[in-house]
Amino acid sequence: MNHYKIITAEQFRKNAFELIGKDWMLITAGNEEKANTMTASWGGLGVMYGKNVAFVVIRPQRYTKEFIDRESTFSLCFFDKDYRKTLNYLGTVSGRTENKIEKSGLTLAYYNGTPYFDEANYALICKKLFKQPLNLEGLLDERLVKTWYPNGDIHTLYIAEITEILRIRHNPVL
Ligand SMILES: Cc1cc2nc3c(=O)[nH]c(=O)nc-3n(C[C@H](O)[C@H](O)[C@H](O)COP(=O)(O)O)c2cc1C
Asked: 122: CA distance to ligand 1 center in Å?
């Protein structure tokens, strides 16, 4: 079991463009009985309603969406580059068809009931504040509609308060 330290948003000195867009993240939700996770490379970190927030967008067919909708919280986990293959697997196979968390070899851990992964470097614990399917009438560039929504599987946007940032320490000195 690894140890974590709760750090402040000011101590979280990471570039969100790299962290999310290039290195990817796992979005994980559920409870101690059953949880699911999926890889995401779209989203953001920012400020809203006077709170530090995360934005994520989830397509309707994702199994993880059922867990996010059921629970009031979820986590965003960020990993070393060594986990790229694992993140690719978790982003191409659905938890509906395989027990992919078990197969991935990652270890589920819980922070006040919110699932995250022990192997991550950081886990952001997120509490849902807002949820709404994107309205395609609001997409100002028609090409984006054609490129990203040829099947009409429109993302739902979630805005969530980042209630805790866990800095996970691996192999702490014995
Ligand atoms: C690099 C990468 C980024 C992804 N980003 C997103 C995303 O932002 N939103 C989304 O809905 N799906 C995204 N996906 C797709 C899901 O991770 C994928 O469909 C996954 O298998 C869903 O698993 P689930 O059905 O168990 O939830 C991404 C996949 C990869 C590989």
From this structure: 19
Catalogue the E-assigned strands of the chain. Answer: 3-7, 25-30, 35-40, 44-48, 51-58, 73-78, 108-111, 114-117, 122-133, 156-169
Rg from Cα positions in the chain: 16
Query: Which residue ranges of the chain lie beneath pLDDT 70?
Result: 1-2, 171-174
Fold classification of 3-169 is Pnp Oxidase; Chain A (2.30.110)
Q: Are 128 and 72 in contact (CB under 8 A)?
A: yes
Counting residues of the chain whose pLDDT is more than 70, the rounded percentage is 97
Domain boundaries, the chain: 3-169
Scan for tokens 């022990």, then name that residue.
118
Task: Give the mutation target among 39, 67, 85, 89 for probing the ligand 1 site: most ligand atoms within 8 A of CB.
Answer: 39
